[in-house]
Amino acid sequence: MADWGDSPPTFDRSGDAWGASAGAFGEEDQGGGEQYVELIGSNLWVAGMVDLGRFRRVSDFVNLTQGYMVFRDVVVLTRTGDATRLTLPELRVLPDDIAVVAQLGDDHAGAGSGAGSGPAAEGGLMIEKRRQRLVVLTRTHIIDGDVFIHGDGSIMAFVDATDPKFIPMSDVRVRWVSDRKLAARYPFALLQRAQILGVATEGIKLGGAEQTMRRAALLKAKSARATDGDGLDGDIGPAGPAAESSLVAAGAENVAGDRTAAGDGSSTES
After folding, report:
1. Would you say the pTM of this structure is higher than 0.70?
2. Is 67 within 8 Å of 53 (Cβ atoms)?
3. Residue 178, CA distances (Å) to 140, 142, 174, 181 in order
């Protein structure tokens, strides 16, 4: 203990863990100050102010803060991003159910690390990074945006990594899964890895209704052929529209027969 001085050695988390030229912490009165952010969860969408303290960037604050994150002057938003009359002077939030932490501007002190493709400084070294469009599915959202990975890196290796907990993205669009309508767009946002259920690496393509229905019909036809060739038709009956039609016809005949029988019985009684 005497060799350690006043305190034992600890892991230095002030270093640049995610590619910015400056560390996560600033000197006294040199932090990021107050920043406006929006939090989007499964059933929560709020906007408010966060005091970064000695953290230089919102990304550092979100990824390194342990326990509750404290936000002030919070306004609850609707599903379309409009402000409601419900306001909270202070809100403490656990990040577990937060999918997106969004900003209306580039992350402070982070422009050199993720503002565009090209070389980025990491620990005094110049690391080539490239822009990759990424579409992510969560339980309630479809989120697409640009991420920046090492020039020889794999996008899936980037997604499968565990650090940092929140992935920085730029030019971000957020949609609700329930209606697929665009809910919000941000120049910079942080996406929590634990919320990711699916990943598409080729962006979003909007096809016409005819093209979509044609593709669906083709897939159903292939599935029907595979079912017909499994040798079980004699046991479970044919599948497809013809089978449905025959079942409907049989049901109609049964109903008609029941009605006729009921009519004969009533006339006999009278």
Report:
1. no
2. no
3. 7, 10, 12, 8
